[in-house]
Write a structure and sequence with these properties.
By secondary structure, the protein is α/β, with parallel strands linked by helices. It has helices at residues 19-32, 39-43, 50-60, 67-85, 97-106, 120-126, 150-159, 173-181, 210-214; strands at residues 6-9, 111-114, 135-137, 166-170, 185-189, 200-202. 41% of the residues lie in helices and 11% in strands. The structure holds 6-O-phosphono-beta-D-glucopyranose (BG6) and magnesium ion (MG).
Length: 220
């Protein structure tokens, strides 16, 4: 029988370290149009859609572009990003992730992906996780970007699970907010201070085990 508690994973920066590729591609583009871009700015783009990311970068540099130029730069950034992604393999899955997913599966928990990325399925294929998740909601299926909880609520619906019975794993401030607003239990993966709004936070997947989640009550 299926366990009721569901586990929802963000992709970039949680399952694979693609966050560094997004950073490199955005930095290259920002610098090219004369806008400074460091880790500090990048933190604000994590979990944020491609369109919103470019809008933010332009606003930091006080720049406006024609629609055509805006589209062109988004495509350029994406191509640059995909050049990095295509070199990935299953060795690029972050430490501890695969064994945790396998354990959840063996305990019959529903597991799902909730990502802002329109490249999510391409990435899952590259790292050989395309048959792993019971449900996938990605950037092609949402109209409201994180911190709006739409992506996670859609996942919960697909899994036929109540939000309060869902754990959400996120590396971004926007994603943690989305999980919290959606009434789910948020698990930050990364820096505790940056992700201080998370219900629980760990540096990586080797810092906790399945037992930890057995002891947590749902969020009601
Ligand atoms: C999120 C990333 O998962 O997906 C963001 O954290 C990224 O950095 C967003 O902008 C959209 O991704 P993509 O692959 O559709 O450009
Ligand atoms: Mg992320």
């Amino acid at each position: 029988m299926q366990n009721q508690t569901a586990f929802i994973f963000d992709l970039d920066g949680v399952i694979v370290d693609t966050a560094k590729f997004h950073f490199l591609a955005w930095q290259k583009l920002a610098n090219k149009i004369g806008i400074d871009f460091s880790e500090k700015e990048n933190e604000q783009l994590k979990g944020v859609s491609r369109v919103k990311s470019l809008e933010k970068i332009l606003s930091w540099g006080n720049k406006t572009l024609s629609d055509q130029e805006f589209q062109r730069l988004m495509e350029e950034k994406n191509q640059d990003y995909l050049n990095y992604v295509q070199q990935m393999s299953k060795d690029d899955i972050l430490p501890g992730v695969k064994s945790f997913l396998d354990e959840l599966k063996s305990k019959h928990h529903p597991i799902a992906l909730g990502s802002a990325s329109k490249n999510a399925k391409t990435i899952l294929k590259c790292v050989d996780l395309n048959d792993t998740f019971d449900a996938i909601v990605d950037g092609n299926e949402v109209t409201k970007a994180k911190p709006n909880p739409e992506v996670f609520l859609k996942v919960a619906k697909l899994l036929n699970t109540e939000p309060q019975d869902c754990f959400v794993f996120e590396d971004s401030i926007a994603g943690i907010k989305a999980a919290n607003v959606g009434g789910m239990i948020s698990i930050g993966i990364g820096d505790k201070e940056t992700l201080r709004e998370a219900d629980f936070c760990f540096k990586n997947f080797n810092e906790f085990d399945y037992q930890f989640f057995k002891n947590i009550k749902s969020k009601t």
